[in-house]
Amino acid sequence: MQITRYIQELLYQHECVTIPHFGAFLTRPFGAKVTPEGSFSPPRKEVNFNPLLIANDGVLAHYCARKESISYESALRLIEREVSSWKRRLQTQTLRFAGVGELRLNSARKIEFIPLGRINFDLNSFGFSSFYRTPLHNKSIEKIMENSKKEDFMFTPEKQNKSAKKSPLLRYAAIGVIGVALLSAAYYFSDQYVTQQRVLAQEEAQQQIEKNVQEATFDLGTLDTVEVNLSATPAVVVPDQVYYSVIAGSFRSIENAERKIRALKEEGYPAALAEVNPTGLYRVAYGRYDTKKEAINMLYFLKYTLKEEAWYLEEK
């Protein structure tokens, strides 16, 4: 069974593809990129690997079962045998996932992931590729400066004065073109500088938030018991606004999803059904929030303080 190929196909459709008892491949979106040197790159999704996410969410097993025309239980057994083989091979060699990347053990005997970066998993950018174009304004400025220097040395002062009297508009036009080109270049590079500074500031703020959350001590106190009456067949969640959710897991059965929600609510979480994923799996969230800050704080609390498995989802 070509599990590595199925993983690559699923990464086009899902933000997270979990391999039971092994780890999970996660995709991270990046916007289009334009550099001052003239390099253009389309929006893309890059792949990372998290060895801590090992709980089976059913996505890979159901996909393998459908592709191989076998039962779900048979697909799970085949995946378990493949994972056992990967773990043995990983002790002495590098595991290669076609189109995704490589896994190997570092000097500390921890799994290290090296992405290939050859495939863009963003379907909205299908068919787009990076390209380079030489900026035009630099050549224009150099050409105008060269013509200006030649004109200064080709004539004597007397002839130059006569030429200036005959065609003063030509000289003024050349000066105007140079000024416009210089202003355009200054505006372009200043805008690039401001954008880079904003990105650096956002990265520093994100690192500070992570540091504060890791050092913080959370006191949840005593939570009151909440009684919730659930209908037999809840409606599928279709958000009419943007929600920021912290996902606990995805389930093929609505009954399993409801059971998970009840368990989380008994622990004191504001659990709820999140947006159904493109393949029809029911996502269960620890909580759905109106602001990204609340969701990120809950995510860091779960991962770094409680050591729970969770991931972030922006529902649009």
Structure explained in plain terms:
- With 316 residues, the protein is an alpha+beta fold.
- The chain has 3 domains: 130 residues, no CATH class; 79 residues; 73 residues, Alpha-Beta Plaits, CATH 3.30.70.
- It contains 8 helices and 13 strands.
- α2 packs across α3.
- The radius of gyration is 29 Å and the shape is elongated.
- The two termini are 36 Å apart.
- About 3% of the residues have low confidence.
What's the structural blueprint in terms of helices and strands?
Blueprint lengths: L2 H8 L5 E4 L3 E8 L2 E2 L4 E3 L2 E7 L8 H10 L3 H19 L4 E3 L3 E5 L5 E5 L15 E2 L4 H18 L2 H10 L1 H48 L27 E9 L2 H13 L5 E2 L8 E8 L2 H14 L5 E5 L1
Antiparallel strand pairs: 1-2, 2-5, 3-4, 4-9, 6-7, 7-8, 10-12, 10-13, 11-12
Helix pairs in contact: 2-3, 4-6
Structure at a glance:
By secondary structure, the protein is an alpha+beta fold.
Mean pLDDT: 77
How many separate helices?
8
Structural class, from secondary structure content? alpha+beta
**First and last CA, distance:** 36 Å
Shape: elongated
User: Order of strands in the sheet with the most strands?
Assistant: 11-12-10-13
- How many strand segments? 13
> What's the number of structural domains?
3
Radius of gyration: 29 Å
Largest sheet: 4 strands, antiparallel
**Secondary-structure element pattern, one letter each:** HEEEEEHHEEEEHHHEHEEHE
Poorly predicted runs of 5 or more residues? 152-156, 216-220
Residue share in helix: 40-55%
Assembly context of the chains: single chain
User: What share of residues are in beta strands?
Assistant: 15-25%
